[in-house]
Amino acid sequence: MQVLKFGGSSVADATRISAVLDIVEKEILRDRMILVCSAIRGCTDRLVEMGRCADPGERLGIAEEIVDRHRAIAARLFTGDERRQAMEELDGLQSELAAARPEDCVCFGELLSTRLIARKCACEGISVRWLDSRKIIRCSSGRVLTDITGSNIMQSVASSPETRLFVAPGFIASEMDGRPTTLGRGGSDYSAALYAAGSGADTLEIWTDVPGIMTANPKTVPAAVTIPEISYEAALKLAEAGAKVLYAPTVTPAMQAGIPIRILNSYDPSSPGTVVGPYVASGPDRWMGVTSMPDVSECGVSVLCLVGEGVSKRSVAVSRILSALSDAGVKPLCDVWGEGSAFYLKVRSIVENEALAAIHREFFESRTLTELPVFIAGYGAVGKELVRLVEAGRDRVASRLGRSIRIVGVSDSRRFAVDFRGMHADDIADMLERGESAAGGAFIDAVCSCAARKSVFVDCTDDSFLHERYPDLFRAGLGVVTSNRRSLAVPYVQYSAIKDAARENGCFFRYDTTVGNAIPILEYLAGGANCCDSIESIEAVVSCTLNYVITGYDGPRTDALSELLRRAQDVGLTEKDPRTDLAGKDVLRKLLILAREAGVPLEESDVKVTPMLPEDFFDCTLDDFYRRLSDYEPHFIEREAELDRMGKRQRFVASLRRDPSARLGYSAEISMRLVDEDSPFFRISGTENVIVVRSEHSAPLVIKGAGEGVRLAATGIIRDILL
Q: Under DSSP, is residue 598 helix (H, G, I), strand (E, B) or coil?
């Protein structure tokens, strides 16, 4: 004897029932069979609604709707007299359902499905007997009386020796006084196990819509794989802890009778599935699966369970669990508990999926790869290059660092899109076009509500207010990487509050590309300040715009200075109004960041700024500005000749110097300065930046490198993400 059970998705419609019959016709050649089936998909939920409905008319409507679904199936399965007989049988069941007590309505789903299936098998020439589980599976106060039930099953099978196929509804049973009852949601599996034990079956097959018992729920953990073999004990622990493939009570009757349980996929009958049996772990630390379920005693809390076989050292496994959760940014709500090879812990339900994925990576994936979900605000030149470089370097980064970046959200100034499966460069433009409005901070709201802890938010914008939402991101558990220097050149109290919010929430805040692009100057300054090597002075040429114009200008031997500035504006080196750069505003922001990283709480009002041009260049329209700049060209030519005679160059320099008389003990200035050949600023060209740092205990440090470049900026952002 063999017992096959098919779930609701496997008998959802005529097509699926035909597939079930193909399996039955093949397997019945091997041995006699008891076929246990669930209600068609969605039917039980509607029957529950019907039982709760107080309106008689509405109850009749639901009954007709349910039976009509079965009539549609019958119309496809049968023809001629067979169809007429099937329809008459459904009419009779509809009458019974309409007259049933509210609490008994839920029992009719399995009656409807199995009567159709039994009739179809008979039409195919198979000797069939339909068994009424309500008369066979007996309960007392909802608890199955296994001795009586087993005897009833054995007698039913023995009384029909000529029958090849018995068809029985799952899920339903009856109390000893004859009142119908059920075995609980998932109870059809339990019904099948009872039929297998009572009939002395050689095997129990549970056919479902998944390829077996898996190491985790694949909807939550896409990397989950099928477990080929698992012991009764391990399967029972997983089922009790929330694994939905196998209903927990199913295991006990099969285990007591020594009947192996095969979990198979009715959508892929050739798949080997999972075999549950009396297996003994062949070696130490054989891991089976990780699952979760809500904590019934505490709202908003979930219980996770990791199950293994033959675990040799619980302390080692516990350490691995806690380390994996720590790397994922998940804090357990209690110590790990359990005994033997089962490990339990509690986490907030909001981070349940992240915790499952982290534990699965640690115990079940051959190469532990930390994948960092990244959200990008600003999809301009830098944002696009960032996505391109992430895709191009994914395999190399993963192989060297064991980490990978997955772009899951992108926003431009108008719209945003989020896809946790990952977003690719070729698709992002279309996704943004079809995306949601980003107005009113909607992208930040979406990120805060859906992002996993330890995700990363990247600010590639030049927005003046986005930094106000950084604390919200930190509270949601995200790290922030920004190339937007406006977010740091705010009043010091705001700057300090942002950094405090990051620390308080255990998140990182990185912004190395705000000064010097990919030059590692901020890391050096912060490191020195944190190690008591106080700064004596900082001198910096860090305006890419002014460096490009000033170093590219050589009087009558080059284009006019106004033309060089227009060119810089055209290629995106300047602000929308280039006078912002000429007035030293961008350099001021960078100096504030440099000083603060060095431990000096500099404010904008502490810095004396002397613009490159006279004041009247700044109080006119942009067109008038360029006309005045062209008219001023003879002065520039004369000044360039004078510099040549002196053997000097002029550079727009930001400086911070120790000054006991100043408010903070430091004076700060930004101005045009003459430098000679001995200065590290003398030979810079293009958009190069140079920063000279003198500290109390170290020799002067000169850092020189490209201060502008989309690729360099994107590279620096990636470095900040992966640190």
A: coil
CATH number at residue 136: 3.40.1160.10
Return the structure tokens found at 150. Answer: 């087993």
The answer to pTM > 0.70 is no
Phi, psi of 270 (to 5 degrees): -80, -15
pLDDT digit string (tens) for 362-417?
Answer: 898 865 447 789 999 999 999 999 999 999 988 888 777 778 899 999 999 999 99
- Per the CB < 8 A criterion, the answer to whether 372 and 453 are in contact is no
Same structural domain, 547 and 458: no
Burial 269-307 (b: 16+ CB within 10 A, else e): eeeebbbbbebebeeeebbbbbbbeeeeeeeebbbbbbb
Write the CA distances from 204 to 192, 210, 233, 644, integer angstroms. Answer: 7, 17, 17, 95
**Do 681 and 538 share a domain, yes or no?**
yes
Contact predicate 485/515, CB 8 Å: yes
Pair (313, 385) in one structural domain: no
Residue the block writes with tokens 């399996």: 23
The tens digit of pLDDT for each residue in 520-567 reads 788 777 766 556 668 899 999 988 888 888 888 988 899 999 999 998
Q: Count of domains in the chain?
A: 4
Residue tagged 């019907």 (tokens): 50
Q: Are residues 547 and 427 in the same domain?
A: no
Phi, psi of 637 (to 5 degrees): -65, -45
Domain that holds residue 162: 2-41+109-209
Domain shared by 679 and 588, yes or no: yes
